[in-house]
Specification:
Layout lengths: L1 H12 L2 H19 L17 H12 L4 H26 L10 H4 L2 H11 L4 H6 L2 H17 L6 H23 L7 H26 L7 H23 L3 H11 L4 H24 L5 H21 L1 H22 L6 H12 L10 H16 L7 H4 L1 H20 L11 H20 L8 H18 L4 H15 L5
Helix pairs in contact: 2-4, 3-4, 3-22, 4-6, 4-8, 4-9, 6-8, 8-9, 10-11, 10-15, 13-14, 13-16, 14-15, 14-17, 14-19, 15-16, 15-17, 17-19, 17-22, 19-20, 19-21, 19-22, 20-21, 21-22
């Protein structure tokens, strides 16, 4: 088995296409260095990552009868993909693209989305231009900001994916608030309204913390900022949901469909995680990789239970949770004592070698990896398997590979520290998890074991060979792998 896998991977690495891609990657690395930009240390730039999000959106758009809003976001992602491809070509030639504020050759890719929206969605040129050209301009600025201002934080591929995610979410939010394009039911409209309000409030607070002068970075100013943020969020909820919004939200979370049970279960897991985090921080003992993976398991149990029991509540919880995670990271970087010091102590204990830049990206990637299927997978019957892509890829597979490989792995992949034993256990653990879910009748998807076997094998090989952050790329790879097996559904 090991010899077959090694031979298969060796054939790929010795192919002319792979060698050409590696030469492009090497030229990009030289030009990035010439521009005096330091990306996160990695053996490759991860340029292939720019294809993941657009591929997922486009495949779902072709396979299913998705809403006009989903199609709009998918077509916008095509322009971002073409921008990334041209960006890579120009960067392999010269570093000028990283230094000039606007690079016309790349920004012209916005015309691709304009034509797609005009042709396939039936929108006029004005509408198509408004949702295409500014998106690519802002993406261009955001990508350069990530690479120039946040040194050692991203590889180029990771920066591309994160910038794509931010811009596509912005397109979705603006389109949903200004146009009647979505076809979600009343419950999901209620959920999305709460999520947009929470994220908008967090964005306002983070902006205020960023603009706060050094001499005013104290608890008093923080109290004022949080008070204004809370007032802003409350006013938005009242204007969008009515004066009884707080009562309606509490009823939805705790009373309707007996949701207090699953919420109480999540609360217990959160208390356990916080308690362990606090004790470990007080001991000031650096956490091992296996110890950090234990939090992967706790987070995965939350998402697994939510997706299988109440996916709508899980969508709401994931949106609010992401806002809180961003807020905590902003407080860590705010230099407001004693909060910043306490959060920094926890970061130093649980950070790994990939958290070498300005921000603690690993926990953010973990959360996004678990939650992204909830945003990317269209809601259709028996979609639970694809919604579990993040849970299976990083919560189960990556964690199992890390634990088993560190204890029983001896045969390492060439050019890395991952082991064959860890990769095999990665694949088997995902298949076993799906098998258990089927036995207990928690998952009812046709050919789920076959599809999982194929998707887990692909994801396991990517996990073994990639130098990009697993938490970010593996769930996206697994979603594409599941899409490639959709004919078995």
């Amino acid at each position: 088995m090991e010899e077959f896998i090694e031979h298969f991977v060796s054939r790929i690495e010795n192919s002319n296409f792979y060698k050409f891609f590696r030469s492009i990657d090497a030229q990009v690395s030289r030009n990035v260095k010439a521009a005096e930009i330091e990306t996160r240390q990695s053996k490759s730039n991860g340029l292939w990552c720019c294809c993941l999000l657009p591929m997922i959106l486009l495949i779902y758009t072709v396979q299913y009868n998705v809403s006009p809003l989903y199609k709009l976001v998918a077509f916008a992602s095509i322009s971002l993909l073409f921008y990334c491809l041209l960006f890579t070509v120009f960067l392999s030639i010269s570093s000028l693209i990283l230094q000039e504020p606007i690079y016309g050759g790349c920004v012209s890719t916005s015309l691709v989305s304009v034509l797609l929206m005009y042709t396939f969605l039936g929108h006029d040129l004005t509408f198509s231009t408004i949702f295409s050209v500014p998106t690519v301009f802002l993406y261009s600025w955001l990508l350069r900001t990530f690479l120039n201002s946040f040194q050692n934080t991203f590889t180029i591929g990771e920066a591309m994916v994160m910038a794509q995610a931010i811009m596509l979410f912005a397109v979705m939010a603006v389109a949903k608030l200004t146009c009647e394009l979505d076809e979600t039911d009343e419950e999901m409209d209620f959920v999305y309204t709460i999520i947009y309000t929470v994220l908008s409030t967090v964005g306002l607070i983070v902006t205020a913390l960023f603009l706060l002068k050094d001499e005013r970075r104290n608890m008093k100013s923080l109290t004022y900022i949080f008070g204004l943020g809370a007032a802003f969020g409350l006013l938005m909820l009242i204007s969008l949901l009515g004066v009884s919004c707080i009562t309606d939200i509490l009823h939805y979370i705790f009373v309707e469909n007996d949701r207090y049970q699953i919420f109480s279960f999540w609360l217990v897991l959160v208390v356990i995680a916080v308690a362990v985090l606090t004790m470990r921080t007080q001991l000031a003992v650096k956490a091992s990789t296996v110890t950090r993976k234990s939090f992967h398991v706790l987070a995965s149990v939350v998402f697994l239970s939510g997706i299988l029991v109440d996916v709508n509540l899980m969508v709401l919880a994931s949106g609010i949770g992401f806002g809180l995670l961003v807020l905590v990271e902003a407080l860590r970087k705010s230099n407001i004592e004693p909060i910043s010091s306490a959060l920094q102590s926890a970061f130093l204990v649980y950070s790994d070698e990939k958290d070498s830049g300005c921000f603690a990206m690993t926990p953010i990637y973990l959360y996004l990896g678990l939650a992204c299927p909830l945003a990317l997978v269209p809601h259709y019957k028996n979609s639970e398997l694809e919604l579990l892509s993040g849970v299976l890829a990083i919560g189960v597979g990556d964690t199992a590979a890390s634990w088993f490989g560190s204890k029983y792995g001896f045969n390492k992949w060439s050019g890395g520290n991952r082991t064959y034993e860890g990769t095999v256990f990665n694949i088997l653990s995902q298949i076993a998890t799906v098998y258990v879910l089927i036995i207990f009748e928690l998952l009812n998807t046709k050919n789920a074991l076959i599809r999982t076997s194929i998707a887990a094998s692909i994801t396991g090989l990517v996990e073994a060979k990639t130098n990009q952050v697993d938490n970010l790329v593996l769930p996206l790879v697994m979603m594409i792998a599941f899409q490639s097996t959709s004919f078995l559904r």
